[in-house]
Amino acid sequence: MKKHNFSAGPSILPDFTIKNTAEAVLNFAGTGLSLLEVSHRGKEFVAVMDETRALFKEVLNVPAGYEVVFVGGGASLQFCMVPYNLMNKKAAYLITGEWANKAAKEAKLFGEVVEVASSKDKNFNYIPKGWSVPTDADYLHITTNNTIYGTEIKKDLDVNIPLVADASSDIFSRPMDISKYAIVYGGAQKNLAPAGLTFAIVREDVLGKVERPIPTMLNYKTHMEKESMFNTPPVLPVYAALQTLKWLKQNGGLEVMHKRNNEKAELLYNAIDSSKMFKATVNDAEDRSIMNVCFVMKDEYAELEKEFQAFASSKGMVDIKGHRSVGGFRASIYNAMPIESVKALIDVMNEFTKSH
Ligand code: PMP
């Protein structure tokens, strides 16, 4: 039976990425050695790293004045690296979920954190509007896509202080105007690569403005100067990222990806909205994530939740269980998810609904 992988992350990757990475594990770049056992300083891997960085910039249209660095530690380490490198006294955070909260918590170790708005009052099922940014803050931090709650800030915001974004779960899902951001970072394990790789797109002129000494490994400058080779990079995830970037380019780039993602999301949200059994947890279409679609059973069908879960699993739907803080279901439909899988999920929902 075909499996449809709706996991929130690590998550579905293009077959192209998985196949090419598997081949390189057996024989890397014609060396007769596995990707897993070659020196990261060898010319073959240095070429991979250079190409990955260049293609990352090309696909995302990263303007001059920015550098892309690959580090370890996940997005979670960026929660600390961002304030370490940028915060003097005060930083502003938009609290749209658990990850934003965790990011703000780290920043509190470095100074005052102003929460410009929060959607905690409704279990983060919307993006707060109409808030203002303190002009004396060193930066504003946002989470562009809230993986757990299925909300997304789909526009590149205009703010008058440096803007920092955690884009772990929507990077490469749409074209982004990087020039509006000081830093965009994320874990790679959704739209790019397996876990173990973290990216940060850093505007060079935002660095060097804090007084404190920064540990070498936590200093963006280290990784910029050493082209992400200060220490041993995670070679396999980097190689896989390169394959995904090639796949993105071959498939028409981010405009095409965005169109496809919108189509998939619209199809699924429409099916949920017109269902007698399911309802979306995010009401405002503007706030609905095109990457993570969260839905629950309507109250009158609440007791069928487990039954639907089991039914969907029996039909090959993998990991559609919602995060424990939301409940219900979450279908993560990242770039690599074909529309056929979304249709298969809708068929399963309809079949289940008909039989009850
Ligand atoms: N931010 C967001 C939006 C996420 O979805 C996640 C992980 N799901 C994280 C941060 C944490 O990422 P990591 O596990 O790479 O530290």
Keywords:
alpha/beta, globular, 14 strands, about 350 residues, about 15% strand, 7-stranded mixed β-sheet, binds 4'-deoxy-4'-aminopyridoxal-5'-phosphate, Aspartate Aminotransferase, domain 2, Pser_aminoTfrase, 2 domains, amino-acid biosynthesis, single chain, Aspartate Aminotransferase, domain 1, 3-stranded antiparallel β-sheet
Descriptive report:
With 356 residues, this protein is α/β, with parallel strands linked by helices. Helices cover 34% and strands 17% of the residues. It has two domains: 15-250, Type I PLP-dependent aspartate aminotransferase-like (Major domain) (Aspartate Aminotransferase, domain 2, 3-Layer(aba) Sandwich); 252-354, Aspartate Aminotransferase, domain 1. A seven-stranded mixed β-sheet has the order 2-10-9-8-5-3-4, sandwiched between helices. Strands 11-12-14 form a three-stranded antiparallel β-sheet, covered by helices on one side. The protein is built from nine helices and 14 strands. A hairpin with a 4-residue loop joins β6 (145-146) and β7 (151-152). The site of 4'-deoxy-4'-aminopyridoxal-5'-phosphate has 11 residues, from α3.
Please tell me the overall pLDDT.
Answer: 98
User: Regarding CATH, which class of the largest domain?
Assistant: Alpha Beta
The arrangement of helices and strands along the chain is: EHHEHEHEEEEEEEHHHEEHEEH
**How many domain modules?**
2
Largest sheet: 7 strands, mixed
- End-to-end Cα distance: 24 Å
What's the alpha carbon Rg, rounded to whole Å? 21 Å
The percentage helix is 25-40%
List the ions, cofactors and other small molecules found in this model.
Answer: 4'-deoxy-4'-aminopyridoxal-5'-phosphate
Given as residue ranges, the uncertain stretches (5+ residues, pLDDT < 50) are none
CATH architecture of the largest domain: 3-Layer(aba) Sandwich
Proportion in β-strands: 15-25%
| Overall outline | globular
Helical run tally: 9
Sequence of strands across the biggest β-sheet? 2-10-9-8-5-3-4
Structural class: alpha/beta
Oligomer: single chain
User: How many strands in all?
Assistant: 14
CATH fold description of the largest domain: Aspartate Aminotransferase, domain 2
CATH homologous superfamily grouping of the largest domain: Type I PLP-dependent aspartate aminotransferase-like (Major domain)
